[in-house]
Amino acid sequence: MRHPSHAHPSRVQPKPGLRRGLGLSLCALMGLSACADQTDKEVERAFQNVNVIEESNLSDIMLTVGDPEEAVAYFTRASRENPEKLDLKRGLAASLIRAKRPADALPIWREVAENPAATSEDRVDYADALIRSGDWSTADEVLDAIPPTFETYKRYRLEAMVADSNREWQKADSFYEIAAGLTTKPSGVLNNWGYSKLTRGDFAEAEALFAEAIQKDPSLFTAKNNMILARGAQRKYSLPVMQMTQVERAQLMHTLALAAIKQGDVQTGKSLLREAIDTHPQHFEEAVRSLRALESA
Length: 297
Known about the structure:
This is Flp pilus assembly protein TadD, contains TPR repeats. The chain has 297 residues and is mostly helical. 74% of the residues lie in helices and 0% in strands.
């Protein structure tokens, strides 16, 4: 007869306390596994959120301070990888405009504008691309289709430019005035408005608008040069009092000289050219060539 202590191991029953311990251990392991799964999902979600934030920040950087061609490359790649994301298409189109490639931007802005999720702002940007590409009539149609309640600086600036191209002067003046009131930096639109007046022959009004643009932004050389053209057309052959560098003074005298010559005041033009050459801190080749051409004639 065998001793009970020699019983077969497989027949040995675990004690009740051990059974409960194993059950608790299994439950703990299962709980740990479930917790790990939950943690993994939370971590994945967190990283997705971080990626969205980083992508958004990178897009903003590319649209503002990044090199235009680098931005084009970035948005081209990103929009190919995520063709369903409208923001990336917007970024690509805007980057192409910044890179001075409106013809390439146009079909992308068209695609964005025709998307069911497109906004009025998208359609304004599409009109901008059309104008830059020389398609004024389509731009006019796109702008006309935007609700009048959508009032932004860019919308009215484009409306003014289209009205100008159609020689609808009253509408152009109204739109320029509205646009100037919708921005904290109106110097650019005031310069455009002044140039519109200049092309119509309203030289005094043009001069006043250029002066206002310069007052808003003393560094805007284009407005300074345009004001000299407006003054020259009125036979005002002196530079107005305004902030300018020595180089700018010489360049403006050169512009005024050419305006005088165009008016038939050749001797005044010659004097202004000589003054421009003397004023410029370096050799002013363009003014020298103009003077030589006059004297040889």
